[in-house]
Amino acid sequence: MLGETTSSWQDKRRTAARTEILTAAWAVAREHGLAGLTLREVAARVGMRAPSLYSHFASKHAIYDAMFGQAWTEYERLADAAEAGLPAAPRAALREIARFHLAFAVADLARHQLMNVRTVPDFAPTEEGLAPAVRVLGRLRAHLARLGVTGDEDVDLFTALLAGLVDQQWANDPGGDRWTRLLDRAVDMYADAVGIPRP
Amino acid sequence: MLGETTSSWQDKRRTAARTEILTAAWAVAREHGLAGLTLREVAARVGMRAPSLYSHFASKHAIYDAMFGQAWTEYERLADAAEAGLPAAPRAALREIARFHLAFAVADLARHQLMNVRTVPDFAPTEEGLAPAVRVLGRLRAHLARLGVTGDEDVDLFTALLAGLVDQQWANDPGGDRWTRLLDRAVDMYADAVGIPRP
DNA sequence: GTCTATACACCGATAGAC
DNA sequence: GTCTATCGGTGTATAGAC
Questions:
Q1: Is A156's CB within 8 Å of B168's CB?
Q2: CB distance from B47 to chain A under 8 Å?
Q3: Residues of chain B with CATH 1.10.357
Q4: What are the residues whose beta carbons fall under 8 Å from the beta carbon of B112, sequence distance 6 or more?
Q5: I need a labelling partner for B61 at 20 to 30 A (CA). Which of A88, B102, B185, B195 fits?
Q6: A64-194 is classed in which CATH architecture?
Q7: CB contact under 8 A, B192 and A188
Q8: A198 interfaces chain B, CB cutoff of 8 Å
Q9: Could B156 and A167 be called an inter-chain contact, meaning their C-beta atoms sit closer than 8 Å?
Q10: Which pLDDT band holds residue B1 (cuts at 50, 70, 90)?
Q11: pTM: predicted TM-score of the whole model, two decimal places
Q12: Which numeric CATH code is attached to B59-194?
């Protein structure tokens, strides 16, 4: 995970074990809900007893933290890939950014809950786990700036708009599209408000 | 709670005990977080042992459900009181509705988490607990209709906008006003989009 | 009816043997 | 590293005192 220059045979085994544990943790979280994740079940899926997990992660929170980092890293990776295909027209570009965000947030409840926290009682990501999330927000700021949106409040308004659509979608129509289908209208409403020119 | 025509001495004692338990539950939820609510601590605060709570509530979820109903009933009560002072100007009225909602949602994290669910793993409000929440949404629809906003999608867009501001506020600036202060801009943005006339 | 005492199955976490 | 055993916590069920 960290930028190791040399990785011995033992290190590879260690990271492999960590990866396997995290994969199992994601599966449990998706089946039983994020809060329904238990060390005993994760351990069972990787052929261990629960206490053995503590040789690889300091605590259950450390597992959540690693998952948090994985989720935002994956977001970053996919966003990078999608960046090449961004339309030139400002509104179309903004629409595509919003569409990507909503699609990612609506695809996996456990992941969404973890990335946007709150549902795990005392969990707060460490600085290391937070890093990719911070980078993603920076990337969004840069994109908006390129579209002419530079004010902090304008950026905050955009994130609130996206967060609201996602939240209402999960809360009141999970699996449906009652709120996600409002995306185009929401983006146009926002674009009008911050002065992004109409096509 | 229910509409009893006669309330015997025992009934009064029963509802008094229930009320006392719920008050203690709110206190615990505010101190330790909504998920940090434990029956043992609630019981201790009302001078009971944990199992004794089961004489008054069928389960911990039943306590959550009663709290859910209380929160939305309180929202309804305050909204009713505020209704008399609503401005005549459409945008001002919309702004006041939004302001009330945000103020209520931002005032108490445990209450907000409970009213908008999700953080309590398997909890889903019963029909009875849900009733005041449904009434509140109906009231909002009526208000918006009076302002000329009748489309379901327009209503959904408004609820998403409010939900987003509240969520971002709690998630990224709890206790502050980084997102709540965007309220006027958000309302104007929305009013422009749905065609509520400018003053 | 209301409460206590007890018990059960589960949780995260730790200690120590191997 | 992984195990077993265990600790203190949880929600919850039930038997029985009053």
A1: yes
A2: no
A3: 59-194
A4: B105, B106, B166, B170
A5: B102
A6: Orthogonal Bundle (1.10)
A7: no
A8: no
A9: no
A10: very low
A11: 0.94
A12: 1.10.357
